Amino acid sequence: MFILGHIGITAFLASILGLPILIAAISSQIPDLIDKPLFLLGIFPSGRYIGHTLLFVILFGFMTYIITKRKVISIAVSFGMLMHLFEDLPYFIPWFYPFINYIFPTGPFEFQYTLKLFLLDLTGIVLLVALYLKNNGFKKEINDVRRVFVKIIKSNS
Ligand SMILES: [Zn+2]
Question: Is 135 exposed, middle or buried (CB count within 10 Å of its CB: 0-12, 13-18, 19+)?
Answer without folding.
Answer: middle
